[in-house]
Amino acid sequence: LGECNEHLRRRAKARDAAGLRREWRALRRHHEPNDRSWGILLDGLARVGDADACLATLRAVPGGGNVVHHTIVVDALARAGRGDDALSLYAAAAFKENARSRHARLRALTQAARDATLAGDVERARGHSRTAEAVAAECGDARGFQTAVACCREARDWEALLRVYDAHAASAHLDAPDGLARTAALQACRLARHGARRAHELWHAWRRDADGGITRDRPDAFAYSAYAAAFAPRGGLDLDDARRLLRDAERHGVLRPRSFNGTGRVDRRAEQNQMNLLASLLEGCAARGGVGDALVLVDDMEARGLAHDAGYAAAIAACARELDADTSGGLVQRAGEREVALGPRAWALAVKA
Questions:
Q1: In which residue ranges of the chain is pLDDT below 50?
Q2: Where are the alpha helices (DSSP H) in 190-324?
Q3: Which residues pair with 260 in a beta bridge?
Q4: pLDDT confidence of residue 55
Q5: Which pTM value belongs to this model?
Q6: Eight-class DSSP state of 62
Q7: What is the C-alpha separation between 106 and 223, in angstroms, rounded?
Q8: SS3 at position 11
Q9: For residue 266, which phi and psi values (nearest 5 degrees)?
Q10: The dihedral of CA 103, 105, 109, 111: what is its sign?
């Protein structure tokens, strides 16, 4: 049986669905499958994304299956976008929870929160984020906290996200939060209470941890943009701080001239993230009507070859707030000279100005 299980495992790891079923039939001809056999079969079906087959196989396991079997199927359902089904299975199962099963539950909660948010069911999404917060505390490990952060982000539950993040950051015995969790926390600051203050604290803690070797993840362009965006609704960073942030991004290789990926083409994703940083800074100018500051940042944007619609739109929004038609018209002309096609928002704001 051990040899047959190993053959089955090889097919599972290779994601060979036909070979998996062939080895399973061969095993059944000569042996009675044990718990390990069923677990390998379920793992193989999960690896090829066949959640329905996972469910059907779980029902066939003698005794209803153990915690490993259920955890595999919960994960398979969550990966298939069936978060509610995964949570229902988890709730109905009779097994003693362990760290692996709790992590699977968190992944299911994340998918269910995403589904609820897309359906516009805010209360159900928030229920999932609150459950994830409690499960992460039960896990008490870095992976659990970081998955719960992702769940709160999917639920748009910004206060809960920051609570989970803070609980992780305060756990000195755990690995520090990774870059994804830190960026999510910065994103949450835009909509959470006391967001600008928290963003400042989170940002400087991240830089301190990176410089001190506590985390290997340094802020990327997306993180810089999230930090700048946290201040935008409250008038943004002042001009000196904004330009200091740009220089800091350049010094760390985040803001750089057009880069190329391995295919010889411009790295559009990196370029878009850099544009988003400048747009976030300009949105702050729009919120406070800082036309002069916006023009300086537009100069910076153009000088770096990162002229784009959202950047011009934010600068034009500053003009609209101050009813500065001349400057707005000049920005429209500058966009045209750089062959940037302005979108409906920019044109509507230009008309308003």
A1: 260-261
A2: 195-211, 221-231, 239-251, 268-288, 291-303, 309-322
A3: 266
A4: 95
A5: 0.85
A6: G
A7: 24
A8: helix
A9: -60, 135
A10: positive
Which of 105, 180, 190 has the alpha carbon at shortest distance from 149? Answer: 180
Distance CA 164, CA 181 (A): 10
Q: Hey, is 260 helix, strand or coil? A: strand
**pLDDT tens sequence across 212-253:** 999 999 999 999 999 999 998 888 899 999 999 999 999 988
Cα–Cα distance measured from residue 106 to residue 135, given in angstroms and rounded to the nearest whole number: 7
Q: For 153-175, give the DSSP string.
A: HHHT-HHHHHHHHHHHHT-TTSP
Q: What integer pLDDT is reported at residue 270 of this predicted model?
A: 77
Check residue 263 and give its pLDDT.
54
Please give the pLDDT value at position 265: 58
Give the Cβ contact number of residue 278 at 10 Å: 30
Q: What's the pLDDT score for residue 210?
A: 92
Sign of CA dihedral 60, 62, 66, 68: negative
Please state, as a whole number, how many other Cβ atoms lie within 10 Å of the Cβ of residue 123. Answer: 7
pLDDT at 149: 97
- The pLDDT assigned to 95 comes to 80
Q: Which positions ≥6 away from 39 have C-beta within 8 Å? A: 68, 69, 72
Q: Which residue has the tokens 């010889």?
A: 264
CB atoms within 10 A of CB 63: 8
Half-sphere exposure of 272 (CA within 13 A, CB side): 3
121 φ, ψ to 5°? Answer: -95, 85
